Structures are given as C-alpha cells and as structure tokens.
Amino acid sequence: MKKVRVTRKYQVTIPKEVRELVGVRVGDELKVTVEGNRIVLESLKPVVGNPVDYLSSLSPKPSDLDAVKLVEESWHED
C-alpha cells in the first residue's frame, strides 16, 4: 500500500512504482470511478503483454516481410 496526500487543488501524485507497474505516462487518460468509498483509476490504454504477439494479432494473415532486410535497405536510401 502506498499513501498519497491530496493537495489544495485536490490533486494526487501516482507513486513511481505504481506508474511503472501499470505503464502510465504523462498525457495518458485515466478512467475515474467510485466503488463504495474507493476512488478507482484505470488506464484507458490497451494492455499489451508480448509486443510481438500484439503486433502479429493486428494482421489477419501471416506476412512474409523480412523486417531486418527492410531496415537494412532503408539505410542505403538517399
């Protein structure tokens, strides 16, 4: 449990450990709800586990792209 203090403007700072655990960054939007006497903050970003699995799921069919080759070719472009 982490304790935070409410400022005069009713602001709180999310502790670094919590921000890093959830992946909250400056500019992110959070959903605020009330559950009994609890204030609940939820990230609106999709939860991404393995980035490769996530990116692979964006295309309905497998791709034969060679990402390494594309990057190497881009180095030689003028």
Automatic annotation (TrEMBL):
<dbReference type="InterPro" id="IPR007159">
    <property type="entry name" value="SpoVT-AbrB_dom"/>
</dbReference>
<dbReference type="InterPro" id="IPR052975">
    <property type="entry name" value="Repressor-like_regulatory"/>
</dbReference>
<feature type="domain" description="SpoVT-AbrB">
    <location>
        <begin position="1"/>
        <end position="46"/>
    </location>
</feature>
<dbReference type="InterPro" id="IPR037914">
    <property type="entry name" value="SpoVT-AbrB_sf"/>
</dbReference>
<dbReference type="GO" id="GO:0003677">
    <property type="term" value="F:DNA binding"/>
</dbReference>
<keyword id="KW-0238">DNA-binding</keyword>
<dbReference type="Pfam" id="PF04014">
    <property type="entry name" value="MazE_antitoxin"/>
</dbReference>
<protein>
    <submittedName>
        <fullName>AbrB/MazE/SpoVT family DNA-binding domain-containing protein</fullName>
    </submittedName>
</protein>
